[in-house]
């Protein structure tokens, strides 16, 4: 069974601080997505990474896919209150169609 | 708005009643997924369609659950004889092509069983 473990589960920081969220698995994924979800809404796609070692930047967010395509990280620089939300990673397996989601990291950025 | 649309947004019903949710995917997307999400958890896969064919169902999908996508466009998810444990957010997503393509989600239907 493929599992994605996210850490930390909860993070509360001050505006302006940097943070890193991790997504780990013992399984290889053909691609990995990061989503952000706000209360009462569906997840919104932030990025897809497909190549081992790939790094993608989206403004203050930096995403990295591990060399072995088993793990990923999301780094946020100078966090803002608008970054508050649930960050989910999701992996697509190499052999099938199913996408597996982690339980998420709930981020709260205080002004 | 050409995103994924789900109706209703909220459903409150008594235990034992049947409920049906609808999902309209992004029009050119051939894949459609249903997920269930409970508080503090990520979405859990329920079932998946490629065009009108239902290709996989999770063990979470008991025989009280049925999903259809009759013309390969919109989809419905029905829960019969609802139970307290069915209370959750039911999310629909759609995508193009293979599993490496990202899924685009609707805002979900929140089901509350009294």
Unreliable spans of chain A: none
Radius of gyration of chain B: 13 Å
**Sheet with the most strands, sense and barrel status of chain A:** 6 strands, mixed
Spans of at least 5 consecutive residues with low confidence of chain B:
none
Instruction: Kindly estimate the percentage of residues of chain A that lie in beta strands according to DSSP.
Output: over 45%
Quick one: how many beta strands of chain B? 11
Oligomer: heterodimer
**Helix count from the secondary structure assignment of chain B:** 0
Radius of gyration of chain A: 13 Å
Helical amount among residues of chain A, as a percent range? under 10%
Largest interface by Cβ-Cβ < 8 Å: A-B, 26 and 28 residues
Structure description:
The complex is a heterodimer of chains A (111) and B (114). Chain A is 0% helix and 56% strand. With 111 residues, chain A is mainly beta. In chain A, strands 2, 4, 5, 9, 10 and 11 form a 6-stranded mixed β-sheet that branches. Chain A starts with a strand and ends with a strand. The mean pLDDT of chain A is 92. Chain B has strands at 5-7, 10-13, 19-24, 31-37, 44-50, 53-57, 65-68, 75-79, 88-95, 104-105, 109-113. Chain A binds chain B through residues 6, 30-31, 33, 35, 40-45, 48, 50, 88, 90, 92-93, 96-104, and chain B through 4, 6, 31, 33, 35, 40-45, 48, 50, 55-56, 91, 93, 98-100, 102-108, 110.
Question: Could you name the key traits of this structure?
Answer:
heterodimer; A: about 110 residues; mainly beta; five-stranded antiparallel beta sheet; B: about 110 residues; seven-stranded mixed beta sheet; four-stranded antiparallel beta sheet; globular
Q: Briefly, what is this?
A:
The complex is a heterodimer of chains A (111) and B (114). With 111 residues, chain A is mostly beta strands.
């Amino acid at each position: 069974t493929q599992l994605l473990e996210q850490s930390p589960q909860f993070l509360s920081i001050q505006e302006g601080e940097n943070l890193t969220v991790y997504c780990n698995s013992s399984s290889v994924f053909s691609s990995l997505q990061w989503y952000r979800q706000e209360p009462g809404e569906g997840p919104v796609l932030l990025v897809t990474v497909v190549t081992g070692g790939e790094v993608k930047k989206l403004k203050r967010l930096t995403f990295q896919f591990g060399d072995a395509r088993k793990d990923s990280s999301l780094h946020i620089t100078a966090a803002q209150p608008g970054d508050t939300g649930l960050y989910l990673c999701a992996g697509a397996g190499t052999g099938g169609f199913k996408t597996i989601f982690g339980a998420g990291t709930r981020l709260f950025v205080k002004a | 708005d050409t995103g994924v649309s789900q109706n209703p947004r909220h459903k409150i019903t008594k235990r034992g009643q049947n409920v049906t949710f609808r999902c309209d995917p992004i029009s050119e997307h051939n894949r459609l997924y249903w997920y269930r999400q409970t508080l503090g958890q990520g979405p859990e896969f329920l079932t998946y369609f490629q065009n009108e064919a239902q290709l996989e169902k999770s063990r979470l999908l008991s025989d009280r659950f049925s999903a259809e996508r009759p013309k390969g466009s919109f989809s419905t998810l029905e829960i019969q004889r609802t139970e307290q444990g069915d209370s959750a957010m039911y999310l629909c997503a759609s995508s193009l092509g293979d599993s490496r393509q990202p899924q685009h989600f609707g805002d979900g239907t929140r089901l509350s069983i009294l």
